[in-house]
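Task: sequence design from structure.
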C-alpha cells in the first residue's frame, strides 16, 4: 500500500528550508564581503578583529600602531604595483562606507596574516587603491 503524500505540508517544509538557506547565504556573503553595516570595526581597532554593532562610523585608515608605514597598492594583492604609502600619523580616506574590507591576496606582514584589504581613495583620487588589513587601522 503506497503512503499518501500531504502536498500542502510538503510545500510548507520546502518554503521554510528555502527561507533558512537564503538567510544563511546572505549572512555568509555579508561576512565574506565585509558588510560595513554589520561588521564595522571600532575606531582604532585593527581591521579583521571582532567589533560590536554600535561601532562609530569609520572613514579613514592609518598605519597599525608600532609600524612606520603601510603600502598602498593598485590591486588587493602583494603582486600588484606599489602606488605609494601611508606613513605613521598620516591618514587616507576609505573608498567604502565604514571602511569595509574585501578579500584579496594573502599577506604576512606587521606580525599578522590576512587576505583582507581595505579599499581607499589615495590622495583624493577617484580610483580605489588598497592597503592590507594586516598593517592598517580604521579610524573615524
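Answer:
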Amino acid at each position: 500500500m503506497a503512503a499518501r503524500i500531504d502536498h500542502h505540508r510538503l510545500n510548507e517544509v520546502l518554503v521554510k528550508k528555502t527561507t533558512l538557506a537564503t538567510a544563511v547565504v546572505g549572512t555568509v556573503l555579508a561576512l565574506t564581503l565585509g558588510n560595513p553595516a554589520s561588521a564595522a570595526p571600532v575606531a582604532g581597532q585593527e581591521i579583521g578583529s571582532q567589533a560590536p554593532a554600535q561601532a562609530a562610523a569609520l572613514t579613514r585608515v592609518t598605519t597599525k600602531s608600532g609600524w612606520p608605514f603601510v603600502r598602498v597598492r593598485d590591486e588587493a594583492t602583494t603582486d600588484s604595483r606599489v602606488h605609494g604609502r601611508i606613513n605613521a600619523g598620516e591618514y587616507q580616506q576609505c573608498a567604502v562606507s565604514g571602511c569595509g574590507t574585501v578579500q584579496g591576496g594573502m599577506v604576512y606582514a606587521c606580525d599578522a596574516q590576512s587576505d583582507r584589504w581595505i579599499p581607499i581613495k589615495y590622495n583624493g583620487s577617484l580610483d580605489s587603491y588598497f592597503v592590507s588589513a594586516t598593517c592598517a587601522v580604521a579610524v573615524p
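The chain has two helices and eight strands.
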